[in-house]
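Fig. S4 source data, part A: sequence.
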Amino acid sequence: MQKHKKTEVAVFRYSIIHDFVNGGRLEHGEKEKLLRKKTGRKWDIPHSDKTSISRAAILNWIASYEESGRQLSALEPKQRSDSGASRVIDDETALNLIRLRKELPKMQVQVFIDTARKRGLIAPDRQPGLTTVYRFLHEHDLMHGSKPQAEDRRKFEAELPNDIWQSDVLHGPSVQMGGKNRKTYLIAFIDDHSRLVPHAEFYPSESLKCFSNAFEQALLKRGLPRKLYVDNGAAYRSRQLEYICANLGIALIHARPYKPQGKGKIERFFRSVRSQFLSGFSGATFLDLNKALDIWLREQYHRRKHSGTGNPPLQRFADNMQCIRCAPADLPDHFRTVVRRRVNRDRTIVIDRRLYEAPVELIGKRVEVLFHNESPETAEVKWQQKSYGMLTMVDLQVNCRVKRDKNYQIQLSADESRPESGRLWEDPT
């Protein structure tokens, strides 16, 4: 499997196990209930035709992640040592048995097995015994017919600061930007426990680039949340955001479509923005809007007693500062754009019509290039998770005249001496 596909699978697996590894305290019964919930539903698994996940697989992912020191790469798929070997209840058979049991929840197990065989739900070469099926039904909480419980919609509040952040976008007013009136979008984050706003800022769009900028600022100011609860917009569903969160140990959770109750706290904050801030805003420019918002947050919102908690957000957040995870020193590197390219025979790489030169040992290899969109000239190259340093941006006009030897190393001619970067030497005079 290609590297980028392995990364997608690792990110997916982290989204499955985040409830078990994000630092929250789970009692044994709660853990088992959560495992049954995850094994009993369908999943859209990247690069796989399977739609279900076994209990053993989830436990193995948790163990691998913890044993590796919480490295995302530990969740990448590996070649199975027992590849090709059959199991009594494989994933397809398991899914068939679960569906049949939901259809016939009170049927005696032996009759249930016979019915499954008659319907062709168990392959002829697989003959699970009575004990095996009993254990399987118990693991999936399917031994006794039970009616689905009503959806629990009780009010919820995170136990500690930075347990959960909610984020959403508010359509803001039109202001002057670059001499024109343009619509603005408020991208904001709110801490579920304290109602503190780690960062809120108006942007000219609600794109992934703007959201990533706001998210990075929030992490720098208030540390890392354990969960980030977002909507289902394009920016929130991007692979880059999934990769950023998984690498930082943040569980990315998407609100269920048409279920706005889960975003109640950020929606309540937006109502305050409309009624208390925008109603009194008298500026005209984009800069005026964000400066006024910053003052309102610092001097009013964060210091005023919140009706939901009975405390000012800043005070409630600070009361439990000991649990805050600080952002890593290399946080900006986690927000770099990642592209994959094959290094050409002349050891060049082309990205967005920009030409780079890679180390000679990477010729022919498919590498990862990481760079910040605002500074593409500083791009790091990696192969098999090892860094090979920074790429050199090449001057196209000069590069076409540079000669290389049989090993594709640059040759300097006597009349046109140029450095390896492809740039002309500066005249010292």
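Fig. S4 source data, part B ends here. The chain is about 35% helix and 20% strand.
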